[in-house]
Design goal:
With 147 residues, the chain is α+β, with helices and mostly antiparallel strands. The protein is built from two helices and nine strands. Strands 1, 2, 3, 4, 5, 6, 7, 8 and 9 form a nine-stranded antiparallel β-sheet that branches.
Length: 147
């Protein structure tokens, strides 16, 4: 009988530890999904559309978003320099960002606003005024680090 009572608390302890581990893992997974990159991933744009380090975001029920970056920054993407203002805005829907504000691409000597990003399978197309450019999704696989 003493052997059974010794095993029962160990079994209860093991079950408690397993439940605590699963709860912690669920909490961490939920926290990871709640950052801007996790929320955006639900709509399937490539993760590297936004630079690393976004400090805050809002997403309205109509899918209007605002992303706060620590500071204005530039990245190299697809052979172009892209500049992000401290605040980036727009609307997100399945496979696209539209009405984008706060993101510009340097074309020759002029900064042109990027107004939309569309994903179609393994291709991402950026719209900047009347001009568009497409790149493989793999080009934007991870959030880039600002210069």
């Amino acid at each position: 009988m003493a052997v059974l009572t010794m095993r029962r608390p160990a079994g209860v302890l093991a079950a408690f530890l397993a439940a605590a581990f699963l709860a912690a893992a669920g909490f961490l997974a939920a926290a990871a999904r709640d950052d801007v990159y996790g929320v955006m991933a639900q709509f399937h744009p490539p993760p590297g559309i936004l630079p690393a380090g976004a400090s805050a975001y809002t997403l309205s029920p109509e899918h209007a978003f605002t992303v706060e970056l620590p500071d204005q920054c530039s990245i190299d993407a697809g052979g172009r320099t892209v500049r992000y203002d401290r605040t980036v805005t727009g609307h997100v829907a399945a496979g696209e960002l539209t009405g984008i504000g706060g993101v510009h691409v340097k074309v020759v000597f002029v900064w042109v606003p990027i107004s939309a990003v569309h994903r179609d399978g393994d291709k991402v197309t950026f719209q900047a005024g009347p001009v568009s450019a497409s790149f493989p999704v793999a080009t934007f696989a991870t959030p880039p680090t600002c210069k």
